């Protein structure tokens, strides 16, 4: 009895597996035709900011006594400054806009070019795949200058930090006097050649900077680049709504939306003109069934994208948004064997770039 039940379960499982086998939608050429996607728009917001890290000098405690500079940093601090906000509108496959060009003996439409992820680029003509725009390169902070490398043997041999600070200050004053004498032409070894004079002044400036940094500290600045992705809602009723993109902290840079140490950065999409009313899925399916075969393309809506932080407008740009526009049909009559119709689409929007 047990063997009979096991055999029955195995038979049912095999039958169910055969009946429910489902092949996922895959773009490209199949036995039925050519599958392709139209894109939807995602916004990549590229934020460039300067990160300034200030390190106190070794003799910061003696800056007021020996150099009369009381306002020098005494602790490490970091300050972020928002430098630039840029916007890149990218097209990615929209799973709700998957179509098929049927293979027919009287049509030339299946001669198509797709991207690797199935976006339609062209029909009956060649089109180049446009690479995703690169991000700006990060600029690393310069290497810190070592003040000790500019110290004399006498300074390095001092028995205490206070004595080292005193001797370093005296060396700074001597270098300043030498620099002023060269500029005025009063130095005994003042060169006649301008290039030689500049070289001597540059060397003195480098020594002065290194020794003064022992009191004043150093600020090293790097340029950091971060990218955020925002996908506009497909519902036209949501257009005009303001969304919190991130938060920006002067101390920490970009932080999460729930981190109250940063100030909110907002993004708003404002339609330029009237957006089409949202159609129900059933209505769309009925329209597609009625219109028959053809080539579906996007007609994106123009939208003003505004990014703000506080009272400051960081970016104001006009971009096309696919999911807020419409999807239109090019009749299959355009691809009759008697017509040499060539169509090229914009890769990022799926709208018609050229039709010949």
What's the multimeric state? single chain
Structural class: alpha+beta
Largest sheet: 5 strands, antiparallel
| Element-level helix/strand string | HEEHEEEHHHEEEEHEEEE
Strand order of the largest sheet: 8-7-9-10-11
Shape: elongated
Mean pLDDT: 82
Question: What is this entry, summarized?
Answer:
This protein is α+β, with helices and mostly antiparallel strands and 356 residues long. The protein contains 6 helices and 13 strands.
Write the layout of secondary structure elements.
Blueprint: H1 2-19, E1 28-29, E2 33-55, H2 63-67, E3 77-102, E4 112-114, E5 120-123, H3 153-156, H4 161-184, H5 194-216, E6 218-230, E7 242-249, E8 253-255, E9 263-271, H6 281-291, E10 294-309, E11 312-331, E12 343-345, E13 352-355
Antiparallel strand pairs: 1-2, 2-3, 2-6, 4-5, 5-12, 7-8, 7-9, 9-10, 10-11, 12-13
Helix pairs in contact: 4-5
Main traits of this protein?
four-stranded antiparallel β-sheet; 6 helices; alpha+beta; five-stranded antiparallel β-sheet; 356 residues
Can you walk through the features of this model?
The chain is an alpha+beta fold and about 350 residues long. The protein is about 25% helix and about 40% strand. It has 6 helices and 13 strands. It has helices at about 1-20, 65, 155, 160-185, 195-215, 280-290; strands at about 30, 35-55, 75-100, 110-115, 120-125, 220-230, 240-250, 255, 265-270, 295-310, 310-330, 345, 350-355. The strands form 3 sheets. A 5-stranded antiparallel beta sheet has the order 8-7-9-10-11, with no helix packed on it. Strands 1, 2, 3 and 6 form a 4-stranded antiparallel beta sheet that branches. Strands 4-5-12-13 form a 4-stranded antiparallel beta sheet, with no helix packed on it. Helix 4 packs antiparallel against helix 5 (about 195-215). The longest helix has 24 residues, at about 160-185.
């Amino acid at each position: 009895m047990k063997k009979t039940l096991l055999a029955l379960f195995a038979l049912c499982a095999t039958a169910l597996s055969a009946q429910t086998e489902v092949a996922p939608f895959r773009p490209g050429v199949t036995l039925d035709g050519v599958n392709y996607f139209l894109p939807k728009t995602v916004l990549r917001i590229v934020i460039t900011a300067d990160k300034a890290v200030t390190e106190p000098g070794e003799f910061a405690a003696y800056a007021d006594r020996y150099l009369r500079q009381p306002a020098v940093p005494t602790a490490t601090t970091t300050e972020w400054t928002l430098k630039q906000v840029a916007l890149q509108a990218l097209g990615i496959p929209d799973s709700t806009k998957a179509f098929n060009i049927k293979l027919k003996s009287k049509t030339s439409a299946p001669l198509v070019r797709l991207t690797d992820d199935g976006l339609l680029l062209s029909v009956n003509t060649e089109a180049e795949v446009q690479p995703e725009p690169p991000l700006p390169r990060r600029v690393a902070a310069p290497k810190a200058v070592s003040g000790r490398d500019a110290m004399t043997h006498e300074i390095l041999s001092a028995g205490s930090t206070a004595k080292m600070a005193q001797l370093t200050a005296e060396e700074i004053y001597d270098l300043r006097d030498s620099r002023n004498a060269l500029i005025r032409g009063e130095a005994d070894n003042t060169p006649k050649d301008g290039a030689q004079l500049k070289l001597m002044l540059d060397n003195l400036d480098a020594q002065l900077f290194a020794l003064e940094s022992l009191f004043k500290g150093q600020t090293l600045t790097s340029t950091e680049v971060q990218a955020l992705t925002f996908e506009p809602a497909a519902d036209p009723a949501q257009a005009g709504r303001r969304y919190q993109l991130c938060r920006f902290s002067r101390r920490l840079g970009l932080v999460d939306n729930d981190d109250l140490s940063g100030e909110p950065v907002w993004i708003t999409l404002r339609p330029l003109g009237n957006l089409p009313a949202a159609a129900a899925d059933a209505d769309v399916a009925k329209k597609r069934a009625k219109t028959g075969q053809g080539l579906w393309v996007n007609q994106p809506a123009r939208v003003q994208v505004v990014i703000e932080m506080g009272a400051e407008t960081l970016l104001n740009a006009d971009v096309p948004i696919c999911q807020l526009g419409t999807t239109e049909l090019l009749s299959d009559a355009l691809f009759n064997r008697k017509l040499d119709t060539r169509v090229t689409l914009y890769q990022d929007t799926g709208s018609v770039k050229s039709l010949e």
